[in-house]
């Protein structure tokens, strides 16, 4: 990832299961990140204020104080991106966490490769907010000017096309469902049909010359993902 040096990134892993903490910590340290660990909510809040992590990986089921309360407390005190871990794939659980400020969700069990992709996606979001201009593969996002370049050519995008392409790029390599795209690009209160996503994906493919669908790929039965280096 070219936007920031990994040794400048602090990641806090919070889970009361030591084996999970060690599994995540070992993998992330091998990637070059600074990794800290906490095993309960109180410790997590204390560490987050001390080390100011860019990413917090936070389990919901914690002793003493659950992950929802920890998420709320951390978000009130520092600017960070929180990926919550849950043993249940319950929509209500996810909505509750998102309402409290969580940025992403992963259900246990999970692969380290997917976790790493989600961390990188969150870091791209953070750096876009900080720098306003960020490079992702062959694309450049200038958030201040509300412009995206592809292979150094300015794309003529409507506001919705811009928001959709930006969201895809910030999740480069991740498969995004239509419902997730609708939620993030059109908003919770959008009452239209999911096929609006297909329409706008087609618009974007036309504008970047993706005639073979090799840049914005359709993952059948799931959604879409973008491959920025093309």
Task: Describe the fold and architecture.
The protein has eight helices and twelve strands. It is an alpha/beta fold. It folds into two domains: 6-125, 3-Layer(aba) Sandwich (Rossmann fold), CATH 3.40.50.2300; 133-226, Orthogonal Bundle (Arc Repressor Mutant, subunit A). The protein has a five-stranded parallel β-sheet with strand order 2-1-3-4-5, with helices on both faces. Strands 6-7-8-9 form a four-stranded antiparallel β-sheet, covered by helices on one side. The protein has a three-stranded antiparallel β-sheet with strand order 10-12-11. Helix 2 (41-51) runs parallel beside helix 3 (67-77) and helix 6 packs across helix 8 (195-208). It is globular and about 50 Å long. The model has no long low-confidence stretch (mean pLDDT 86).
Describe the secondary-structure layout.
Blueprint: E1 10-14, H1 18-30, E2 34-38, H2 41-51, E3 55-59, H3 67-77, E4 81-86, H4 91-99, E5 104-107, H5 112-131, E6 133-136, E7 139-142, E8 147-150, E9 153-154, H6 159-170, E10 176-177, H7 178-186, H8 195-208, E11 216-219, E12 223-226
Helix pairs in contact: 2-3, 6-7, 6-8
Q: Briefly, what is this?
A:
The protein has 230 residues and is α/β, with parallel strands linked by helices. 43% of the residues lie in helices and 21% in strands.
Key terms:
12 strands; single chain; Arc Repressor Mutant, subunit A; 8 helices; Rossmann fold; 230 residues; alpha/beta
